[in-house]
Prior knowledge:
Blueprint: E1 2-6, H1 10-22, E2 27-32, H2 37-46, H3 49-52, E3 57-62, E4 73-76, H4 92-109, E5 114-117, H5 122-133, E6 140-142, H6 145-160, E7 167-168, E8 171-173, E9 180-182, E10 188-189, E11 192-193, H7 200-211, H8 213-221, H9 227-241, E12 246-255, E13 261-272, E14 275-279, H10 286-303
Parallel strand pairs: 1-2, 1-4, 2-3, 4-5, 5-6
Antiparallel strand pairs: 7-10, 8-9, 10-11, 12-13, 13-14
Nicotinamide-adenine-dinucleotide (NAD) is lined by residues 6-12, 32-34, 37, 77-82, 91, 95, 98, 101-102, 118-120, 122, 143-144, 147, 175, 223-226, 229.
Amino acid sequence: xxxxxxxxxxxxxxxxxxxxxxxxxxxxxxxxxxxxxxxxxxxxxxxxxxxxxxxxxxxxxxxxxxxxxxxxxxxxxxxxxxxxxxxxxxxxxxxxxxxxxxxxxxxxxxxxxxxxxxxxxxxxxxxxxxxxxxxxxxxxxxxxxxxxxxxxxxxxxxxxxxxxxxxxxxxxxxxxxxxxxxxxxxxxxxxxxxxxxxxxxxxxxxxxxxxxxxxxxxxxxxxxxxxxxxxxxxxxxxxxxxxxxxxxxxxxxxxxxxxxxxxxxxxxxxxxxxxxxxxxxxxxxxxxxxxxxxxxxxxxxxxxxxxx
Length: 308
Ligand SMILES: NC(=O)c1ccc[n+]([C@@H]2O[C@H](COP(=O)([O-])OP(=O)(O)OC[C@H]3O[C@@H](n4cnc5c(N)ncnc54)[C@H](O)[C@@H]3O)[C@@H](O)[C@H]2O)c1
Ligand SMILES: O=C(O)C[C@H](O)C(=O)O
């Protein structure tokens, strides 16, 4: 199993570290445009191998895509992150050009790869990859919902004053400050609906805190987050590499599912060796359907800014 990560910045390096620690990939290639950075981070990570007990081989490359040849999974984290006060959508001007260029170079060397898009605005970047690479739709996956769901579960565990591992829940919709749809109605603590423990108002607060999870961290850090994003990406790569048939909300091309067409947005999917094995259509109530529709309208507005 060979995994390439383009962008050896905060998220790319964190993702490489988690993949290495999980020890399921034989080879991890980090590639960056900045001279020496990917090589340096790869060497630094390799020097943790004996400490962390992994056998994955990590190498770095400054913009030499021949080193990425034959990758089973590629991850795109190249691009600029937002600064406090910005939205993810404001990154489109710079990141669209980077994602288009990087994805086309990756495909030249790994035509059958599964591509995971992380760069923001992620749903629109995933749509751009669909429009420009010719990869089949099961092989293009946008990462956002896995991270947003992890943040949702964290916020729920805070509210419930319980261990995070007690909590289950999912966030669907666009990966944006206003477009996320945390499914509070379906969230549980050990199979008991969280509404049995938390008031409507407290659940509303959890939902709002989840939606601005990325913005909250950006304000604290001065740039966007990387540990949970890196861990979330590594979970998707793991599910594909080990054919786990595991469910995650991911941004995928919809063709009628959830009443939506020609858009990439977060919905539950099953991940396995073919990338997206299937899209899971869950029964939403009227309020949830309205939220998804509104979220999709927001994503479409951003997609319209693409020069396709
Ligand atoms: N989808 C998500 O859930 C999620 C989560 C976190 C961050 N992000 C996004 O991921 C992106 C990266 O964030 P970060 O914090 O790692 O930023 P960063 O600045 O730390 O790293 C980005 C890296 O990309 C490299 N790069 C830029 N153009 C390149 C190119 N053409 N080819 C190869 N490498 C190139 C840069 O040199 C840099 O090292 C941002 O767009 C951010 O908004 C998305
Ligand atoms: O918030 C950001 O801009 C980065 C990322 O999308 C996140 O949710 O952490």
